[in-house]
Design brief:
The protein has 181 residues and is an alpha+beta fold. It folds into 2 domains: 1-63; 69-179, Immunoglobulin-like (Sandwich), CATH 2.60.40. 39% of the residues lie in helices and 41% in strands. It has helices at residues 2-63, 103-110; strands at residues 69-76, 83-91, 94-100, 114-121, 125-136, 142-153, 158-167, 172-179. The strands form 2 sheets. The chain has a 4-stranded mixed beta sheet with strand order 4-1-7-8. It has a 4-stranded antiparallel beta sheet with strand order 3-2-5-6, with no helix packed on it. It is elongated. The termini are far apart. The relative contact order is 0.14. The mean pLDDT is 82.
Length: 181
């Protein structure tokens, strides 16, 4: 029985040694296989981002065809005489869009940023756009001023800028709505 027990112990020891060697080899193979999997995951992420970008462009083209498109942009210059709080825009007497600004967004506009304020469809013909700007004017007083633009929408996209700038001569803010050519 002692010989049998000794033989079994040796066999079990040999089997355990083989299992450990196989497990070590499997870990090496798994580690080598993991690197290409990580690369495949990164490639897949890039593909998904590119597809998402293409879908966004396609969605905008379908929802807002270029021949009926109206886009409004908002920009600010300097900001010594006006601190922006909100903008409300009406088109042909109907509210089109409004936006309440955070200090961080206002700061981005003052540093040269341009906000895409509105994008939508508009039929051809005569239209009137009115923008009401609300904020703090000179001496920290509440300030509310409107600007308007009458324009004709024809075929093709129409781009309009709502611009807030400082007029140093009168030390007052100036609000201008202009069409981009």
């Amino acid at each position: 029985m002692n010989i049998m027990t000794s033989f079994c112990k040796q066999a079990i020891g040999s089997i355990l040694m083989v299992i450990l060697v196989i497990a070590g080899f499997a870990q090496e193979v798994e580690a080598e296989a993991a690197a290409p999997v990580d690369q495949q995951v990164q490639d897949l992420k890039r593909s998904v981002l590119n597809l998402n970008r293409e879908l966004f462009v396609l969605e905008e083209e379908l929802l807002f065809p270029a021949n009926t498109q109206l886009m409004l942009f908002l920009s600010m210059d300097v900001g010594k005489y006006f601190e922006l709080d909100s903008v409300e825009v009406t088109l042909d007497g109907k509210e089109l869009s409004s936006y309440l600004y955070t200090p961080r967004e206002t700061d981005a506009l003052l540093r040269g940023g341009v906000q895409r304020f509105y994008i939508g469809n508009l039929k051809s013909g005569e239209h009137e756009l009115v923008a009401v700007f609300t904020g703090k004017g000179p001496s920290g007083r509440d300030y509310r001023r409107a600007a308007s633009l009458g324009f004709e929408k024809s075929l093709g996209a129409k781009f309009v800028e709502l611009k807030i700038s400082d007029r140093d001569s009168s030390q007052q803010p100036e609000f201008v709505i202009k069409e981009w050519e």
